[in-house]
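User: Show me a protein chain along with its predicted structure.
Assistant: Here is one chain, sequence first, then structure tokens.
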Amino acid sequence: MQQVRAKKSLGQHFLIDLDVAQRIASTIDDYKGVPALEVGPGMGVLTQFLLQNGHDLKVVELDSESVDYLKANFATLDGRIIEKDFLKLDLREACGDGEMVVIGNYPYNISSQILFHVLDYKDQVTCCSGMFQREVAQRIAAGPGSKTYGIVSVLLQAWYDIEYLFTVDENVFDPPPKVKSGVIKLVRNKVTDLGCDERLFKSVVKTSFGQRRKTLRNSLRGMIPPEAMPNLDAQYGELFKRRPEQLSVAEFIELTNIIKNLQQK
């Protein structure tokens, strides 16, 4: 059967280096026996190693041409190919109510959206690994103080321990992208409750980084009652004089609780 034609609209860059594919597949070898879902398998270069490694695998693929290719070349995937948009997929419906692992060479144009969709199922997705545009991968794994530390860093690190594993060059893809790639691994931490209002936490993080050059006192002004503004420094020291990239996840949780208390007074 003919090779699948890469479609720019779907952000497709097919990995052709088998050694790299094998390294990515091995990132979830600690989770054999846990249902695994591969996002965007394309022509199955990663799929073949996931199957060889004995994973209980399903794949989700939006491109009908890729689906036809997989059906013709991977008989063991019979009944395990989900022809849908991952961003619209109910992961419980796809893999059941128990633990699951998500892996893929993710389309770069929707990679952050993919991770936020995974986050919606954080109580099920025990591990998520795979390849992203390098700058995105670095941002996800970045810690406080880094210029790349931002919204996605904080919201994901609240629930996952994240490790940047290795960098991948452009020439291992067809067609080659114009950027390097990075492979990361997210492992669910033991947090079951952030200890704050989760909706407000997201809002505080997004608002803070929305004006990341400003101090928190200024960027969060719209969330703080006007009467509380004059006493912020006296009550909370240097906290509101800092910028968002200086705060850890724990400090963002503390900040959320402070704002919640101020709003309730």
